[in-house]
Design a protein that fits this description.
Blueprint: H1 3-21, H2 23-57, H3 60-76, H4 83-92, H5 96-106, H6 112-118, H7 127-138, H8 142-163, H9 188-223, H10 225-234, H11 241-252, H12 254-262, H13 268-281, H14 283-294, H15 301-333, H16 347-370
Helix pairs in contact: 2-5, 2-9, 4-5, 7-8, 8-13, 8-15, 9-14, 10-11, 11-12, 11-13, 12-13, 13-15
Length: about 375
C-alpha cells in the first residue's frame, strides 16, 4: 500500500473514532457547516459559476485571449486565453479559477501544461471575502483589507512571472489555443442548461468538502490535538497562543484561521501578514475542494501545492514590507462607515457607469459578431 493510502486510511479511522465518541459536537458542527454552505457559499458562488460557464460556451474566452495575447505571452509565457481564468479567478475567488481552467482544458482550449502553469496563480481569494470579511468584519478596518488584497494579487502575479522560468514551452505553441474559433454553436437553451448543471455539480462538491473539513476541525478540537500542537509550536515561535492557533486553524480552514489571527495580541502588521499568508494558501479545505475539481484533467498535485506555498510566501512578504507605505494613505481614504453602504458613489455616477458598461457590452457584441 502506498504511503499516501496509509495516511488517508489512518485519518479516516480517526474520523470514524471521533464520530463514535463525540457524536453530538461533531453533528452540531456538520449542521453549522451545512448552514454556512447553504446561506453563503451557494448563493455567492453558483450564479458566478453559471455566468462563467455561459461565457465559455459562447466562446468569449477565445475572444478575450486574442485581445490579451500581447500581454500574457511576454509576461507569463502563456497563451492569451489564460487571461480568462486569471481575471475571473481574481474577481470571484476560490475555487472559480480552478473550475474555469478545468472547463477550458476539457474543451481543448488549454493544454495540460498551460493548465498546470495558470493554476499556479489564478486560484485566489475573492475581493469580497478579503475586504468584506477579513478586513471589515474581522479587523474592523476595510483599509487593511485593501492592503491584504493588493498583496495577495501582486503575490499571485509575481508567482506567475517566476514560474514561467520553471516551465519551458516552445514559442510556437503559446498562441495556438487562443486563436481557435468559438467552441459552441449550441442553442441558448442548451447553453443555459449545461452551465446551470455544471455549476450546481461544482457547488455541491464544494459543499461536501465544507462539511467534511468542518467535522475534521471539530474532531481535532475535541480530542485535544489542536491544543497540543499549539503548545508545541508556541515553544518555538515567539507568538501568542491565539496567533499560533490561528495559523494552525488557517492551515486547515482559512476563515476560522483569519478570525483567530484578528483576535491575537500581535501588532496589526504581524496580524495582516499572517492573515494574508493564510488567505493566499487557502488551507487544506480549499486545497481539497480545488483538487476535487481538478481531478478530471490529471494535474500534478505536488506542483500545485508547491505553487500555492510560493504564492503564500510572496504575498506575505509583500504585505509585511508594503504595510508602512500603504497603511497611512488607505486609512485616511477609506472609512469603515462607508463600507456597508451599497456604493460610495452617487446615484447619478453609478447609473452612468452602468450605462457605460452596457454600451461597451453592446459594442463588443457587434464587434465579435463581425469576426
Amino acid at each position: 500500500m502506498k504511503p499516501s493510502s496509509v495516511f488517508f486510511t489512518i485519518c479516516t479511522l480517526f474520523l470514524l473514532f471521533c464520530l463514535l465518541f463525540f457524536p453530538q459536537p461533531l453533528l452540531q458542527k456538520a449542521i453549522e457547516s451545512v448552514d454556512l454552505w447553504f446561506h453563503l457559499v451557494l448563493p455567492s458562488l453558483f450564479p458566478f459559476l453559471t455566468a462563467t460557464g455561459i461565457l465559455i460556451r459562447l466562446g468569449m474566452a477565445q475572444k478575450l485571449g486574442r485581445i490579451l495575447q500581447p500581454v500574457m505571452q511576454p509576461v507569463f509565457g502563456l497563451s492569451g486565453i489564460c487571461a480568462f481564468p486569471l481575471l475571473l479567478g481574481i474577481l470571484s475567488g476560490y475555487p472559480s479559477g480552478a473550475k474555469i481552467t478545468v472547463t477550458l482544458c476539457q474543451q481543448n482550449a488549454l493544454s495540460k501544461k498551460e493548465a498546470q502553469r495558470i493554476l499556479a496563480f489564478c486560484n485566489n481569494p475573492g475581493p469580497l471575502f478579503v475586504v468584506g470579511t477579513a478586513g471589515t468584519a474581522f479587523l474592523k478596518n476595510p483599509a487593511l483589507g485593501y492592503i491584504m488584497l493588493f498583496s495577495i494579487f501582486l503575490g499571485a502575479i509575481l508567482t506567475g512571472i517566476v514560474f514561467r522560468f520553471f516551465y519551458k514551452q516552445p514559442k510556437n505553441t503559446l498562441s495556438a489555443h487562443c486563436l481557435r474559433p468559438a467552441l459552441s454553436k449550441e442553442p441558448i437553451g442548451k447553453i443555459l442548461g449545461g452551465s446551470v448543471a455544471d455549476a450546481m455539480e461544482t457547488v455541491l462538491q464544494i459543499g461536501g468538502f465544507v462539511i467534511l473539513f468542518g467535522v475534521i476541525i471539530e474532531a481535532l478540537n475535541q480530542t485535544g490535538i489542536f491544543s497540543f500542537l499549539t503548545h508545541c509550536i508556541g515553544m518555538v515561535l515567539p507568538f501568542s497562543s491565539t496567533a499560533i492557533e490561528g495559523i494552525l486553524g488557517g492551515f486547515l480552514e482559512m476563515t476560522n484561521g483569519a478570525s483567530l489571527l484578528s483576535q491575537s495580541q500581535e501588532s496589526i502588521r504581524i496580524q495582516i501578514t499572517c492573515i494574508t499568508a493564510v488567505l493566499s494558501f487557502g488551507g487544506l479545505s480549499i486545497l481539497a475542494q480545488t483538487l476535487g475539481i481538478l481531478a478530471p484533467i490529471s494535474i500534478s498535485t505536488p506542483k500545485y501545492i508547491f505553487s500555492k506555498c510560493v504564492n503564500s510566501v510572496f504575498s506575505a512578504f509583500i504585505c509585511f514590507f508594503c504595510y508602512p507605505f500603504l497603511a497611512q494613505k488607505l486609512q485616511k481614504a477609506v472609512s469603515v462607515g462607508l463600507f456597508p453602504t451599497k456604493t460610495a458613489l452617487s446615484a447619478d455616477l453609478f447609473s452612468f457607469l452602468c450605462s457605460l458598461f452596457l454600451s461597451f457590452a453592446l459594442l463588443s457584441m457587434v464587434f465579435f459578431h463581425k469576426e
